[in-house]
């Protein structure tokens, strides 16, 4: 099977603009139902300790499985570490045609971008590398995932 060549930066920027062109609703814990504050169904976290190569080896099957999900939406990677490239995803056996890799621009943080991707619901799973991740940031991810009917997976590399 031959994989398409990776998109150049200009094409990705145009795609990001199209993907995130819809207005985003502001969230407040006071306006959400109590069951939306339970992170059990929408948020997961993996903590990996060791060398970069070992962590990549452990993460590969997770990303491969998520890229083959039956849900037709994207698997979105937000600000992945330098080692998680399109070439690495290919070698890991991931379906790169179903993966979108995004990095924050300007003053935008990785947390803001992850929340935006989750809220829009165009991704079945949004994987982020946020560390540290405090309770408030976790709640933002949970609420955004609930709104977009998506899953949030945070990866902590130690």
UniProtKB/TrEMBL annotation:
InterPro entries: Cell_div_suppressor_SulA, P-loop_NTPase
GO BP terms in the entry: negative regulation of cell division; SOS response
Keyword match Signal: no
Pfam families, per the entry: SulA
Annotated keywords: Transferase
MF annotations from Gene Ontology: transferase activity
Protein name as catalogued: CDP-glycerol--UDP-pyrophosphoryl-N-acetylglucosaminyl-N-acetylmannosamine glycerophosphotransferase
Organism of provenance: Pseudomonas mangiferae
């Amino acid at each position: 099977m031959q994989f398409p060549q990776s998109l150049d930066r200009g094409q990705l920027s145009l795609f990001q603009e199209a993907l995130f062109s819809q207005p985003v609703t502001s969230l407040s814990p006071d306006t959400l139902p109590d069951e939306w504050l339970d992170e059990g169904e929408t948020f997961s976290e993996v903590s990996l300790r060791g060398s970069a190569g070992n962590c990549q080896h452990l993460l590969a099957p997770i990303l491969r499985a998520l890229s083959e999900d039956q849900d037709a939406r994207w698997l979105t990677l937000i600000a992945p570490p330098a080692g998680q490239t399109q070439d690495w995803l290919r070698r890991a056996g991931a379906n790169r045609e179903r993966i979108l890799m995004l990095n924050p621009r300007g003053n935008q943080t990785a947390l803001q971008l992850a929340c935006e991707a989750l809220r829009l619901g165009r991704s079945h799973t949004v994987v982020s590398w946020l560390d540290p991740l405090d309770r408030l940031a976790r709640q933002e991810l949970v609420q955004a995932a609930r709104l977009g009917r998506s899953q949030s997976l945070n990866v902590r590399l130690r």
